[in-house]
TrEMBL record:
Pfam families: M20_dimer, Peptidase_M20
Domain of life of the source: Bacteria
Protein name according to UniProt: Amidohydrolase
Domain Peptidase M20 dimerisation stretches: 205-301
Coiled-coil ranges from the UniProt annotation: none
Family annotation (InterPro entries): Amidohydrolase, Bact_exopeptidase_dim_dom, Peptidase_M20, Peptidase_M20_dimer
Length: 428
């Protein structure tokens, strides 16, 4: 197929009019999702919101794929099958934006802990764009032919949701796509879009290290084998793994996100867990990092007197391959979008990042499926200008308590999603 066809001005105007007329609803939808964030695999309300919106538009909807995932299909004659994904989950972060629709939600996790929840990565915008784009596609249904497959995906943050949907039979409910696309917010000015080819985001793994020991009274540490001490030494040792084991020309990151152990001041626990995260582009680097985590952890445990029965467990909980945009698809989409929003508004050379995604895992049994991931600027241009004036590249970053999607990005991102889908659905 020819990937992204140029859109005639008459169709662009119709899309713009449909989204403009829908903007008030979309902004309220966005605020509602933002006020009511749900963590990974708990996206019950968000999933239901997508389900109802798409059913009302005439999509065939299947819910509960991969626990809370949604797959919706709109068949509109012969033509390409284009799949579009939006992720739904929020972050366990306490929001500090001061917005009048800010989240104050607390969520009980399966382990019994209670954590704050907030959309500090823009998934609330992603869901809103999907809903608004679906409405636009239906509004201009006479202008395209093919099949639109829209995915509401759970659990992107732990990098487990896409795999869960595929493993739960996603392709039993949808036709095989000819192409897969996704979109994500970025803290660039509203109006900027990136469609850059090649490697975009790093591969990642979420790795837990469970240190086992012998607990006891805080007054008698000599009678224990303290797993907290092991964990503390491991955290320090992990900081040397990358410089000591990985070629400096390679991308490699190992970070510690949490340590969980104990409950009382005067009790030495029998177990401590370190939650780590690795990032990589070369699979050999991944193996090096995993091997180093295991060997460092085992050596620390043995130095603390742990026998074979108390050696640490290494648990890889979830992960994803590097995200790589198809060069031909990225180029054709950038050309199609630039014809609408202007060459200066479309970036084709955005540097690769060390953040990660799992949208490409939705390819499932079709690894050669063409794929492209757009990045859409969602920051207030004045905030971006002020940040750059003080020497900062961006006003805020994803996964921080003050990440803000400007409300102007709600209709703008919806239009970009609609342009992108229509360009592909009109391609032959």
């Amino acid at each position: 197929m020819t990937f992204a066809a140029s859109l005639p001005q008459e169709l662009i105007s119709r899309v713009d009019a449909a989204v403009d007329a829908d903007t008030d609803r979309l902004v309220e939808t966005f605020k509602d999702i933002h006020r009511n964030p749900e963590l990974a695999f708990g996206e019950v309300q968000t999933s239901r919101l997508i389900e109802k919106a798409l059913q009302n538009l005439g999509f065939d909807v299947t819910k509960g794929i991969g626990r809370t995932g949604i797959a919706a299909t709109l068949r509109n004659g012969d033509g390409p099958v284009v799949m579009y994904r939006a992720d739904m989950d929020a972050n366990a972060i306490e929001e500090q934006t001061g917005l009048d629709y800010a989240s104050d939600v607390r969520v009980a996790r399966e382990d019994g802990s209670v954590v704050p929840a907030a959309h500090m990565c823009g998934h609330d915008a992603h869901v809103t764009w999907l809903i608004g784009m679906a409405n636009a596609l239906v509004t201009v249904r006479d202008s395209w032919s093919g099949t639109a497959v829209l995915i509401g995906q759970p659990a992107e943050e732990p990098i487990t949701g896409a795999k869960a949907m595929v493993d739960d039979g996603l392709y039993n409910f949808i036709p095989k796509p000819d192409v897969l696309i996704g979109m994500h917010t970025m803290p660039a000015p509203v109006g900027i879009v990136s469609s850059s080819p090649g490697p975009r985001l790093a591969g990642t793994d979420q790795v837990d290290i469970v240190f086992h020991g012998v607990g006891g009274h805080g007054s008698m540490p000599e009678r224990t084998k303290d797993p907290l001490q092991m964990a503390a030494r491991a955290v320090v040792a992990f900081s040397s793994v990358v410089p000591e084991h990985v070629d400096p020309s390679q991308t490699a990151i190992l970070t510690v996100g949490a340590i969980a152990a104990g409950a009382d001041n005067n009790v030495i626990p029998s177990q401590a867990v370190i939650r780590t995260n690795i990032r990589w582009y070369d699979p050999r680097v991944r193996e090096t990092l995993l091997d180093a985590i295991e060997s460092v952890s085992q050596q620390i445990a043995r130095d603390a007197g742990a026998g074979d029965d108390l050696l640490p467990e290494i648990i890889v909980k979830g992960g994803s391959l590097p995200l790589v945009n198809d060069p031909e698809l990225a180029a054709s989409m950038s050309t199609s979008l630039a014809a609408i929003i202007g060459d200066d508004s479309v970036l084709t050379d955005l540097p690769a990042a060390t953040a990660s995604e799992d949208v490409q895992i939705l390819k499932g049994p079709y690894p050669d499926m063409p794929f492209n991931y757009l990045m859409v600027g969602t920051a207030d241009p004045e905030l971006v200008a002020a940040a750059r004036a003080r020497g900062d590249e961006v006003p805020f970053s994803p996964h921080t308590p003050n990440y803000i999607v400007d409300l102007a990005a709600v209709p703008y991102g919806t239009k970009i999603a609609a342009y992108a889908m229509l360009g592909l659905l009109r391609g032959q």
